[in-house]
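Apologies for my clumsy wording, but could you write out the amino acids of a protein and the tokens describing how it folds?
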Amino acid sequence: MKIFNDLQLAKELIRFPTVTPVDAGIMKFLEKKLKSIGFKTKILEFKEGNSKSVKNIYARFGTKSPNFCYAGHVDVVPPGNIKNWSSNPFKPTIKNGRLIGRGASDMKSSVASFIAAVSDFASKNKKFKGSISLLITGDEEGIAINGTKKVVEYLKRKKEKINFCLVGEPTNPSRMGEMIKIGRRGSMTGYLSIFGKMGHVAYSHKAVNPSTCIVDILKNLKQLRLDNGSKNFQPSNLEVTKISIDNSADNVIPGDAYATFNIRFNDRHSSNKLKKKISIYLRKICKKYKCKFKIEYMISGESFITKPNKTTYMIRDIIKKNTKKNTKLSTSGGTSDARFIRKISPCLEFGMVGASMHQVDENIKVSDLKTLTKIHKEILENYFS
């Protein structure tokens, strides 16, 4: 059986310009690699509404239980102005012991590391009791409706059981081994429209100004103290991300105004409770200014925490041993696909250092990649021992 080199495979994956949700042939490439070491694979393509179709892959080595799954994504964010990079973001280079390229940190190197670890483990443990699976998506950095979410629904329909899942997100803030994620805050975005009455500035009594109304609403929402955090989570926060008033004339009161805000909320809230709380403010302030409003929400995910179990602690001990760090169990950061996977399996997140993810010259230490592959190998050895 072929044993893959983690660095070589990471380079090969980075060469695919998979700016979300573009596939660029990467799923077929992964399928070929995984089949060559004994995996049974299925490429799953999904499309919802007017969104672009997305290819995902689910692969499994073995048929017995327990089934240990690795989940990750191979889509990446846009590189921005390529002239700002020290080298082409899709032509991986190594400088000063660092692998540079879009997706090096988030998270093609982690995917390569696990596949390399599996190829080594499977070659030496041909009769291990259990299965190893991979769930790789091309829709994590985008709207995330045709990726892991749909694959999880597919696995539920097929009654495919996953006993534990390792999500390979770059969880370490600055050094390898610092952090494991065991949960995430929820995320909801509010799209607010305020409707007034257009008019001349000199005759303001004949108009209803939505600008004044929306500013007051946003001020009140921003001053709203949602909580002081909870046992497992940092405090919830609301941030205004967009304000739009389409008005090309300086002497005209506009007819409508728009704003977008995002809330990251902990386990003291649900999205429905937050909606009700916000509606109270909207009705009260719009009544004061004689405006009307419309509010729409997109819920990216509710807050969640996976209660640590013996596998969690086993993985933490392996990370500690290989990195000499006091690995912290955390719920910090943004959303991830763990919010979908946790519905069918206990899971945790651990991967590369994320200090440079989404930045120009995104990079990782080659030595960290080697450490991660060693960690992945030891996780498999211990899980199936």
About this structure: The radius of gyration is 24 Å. The chain has a mean pLDDT of 97.
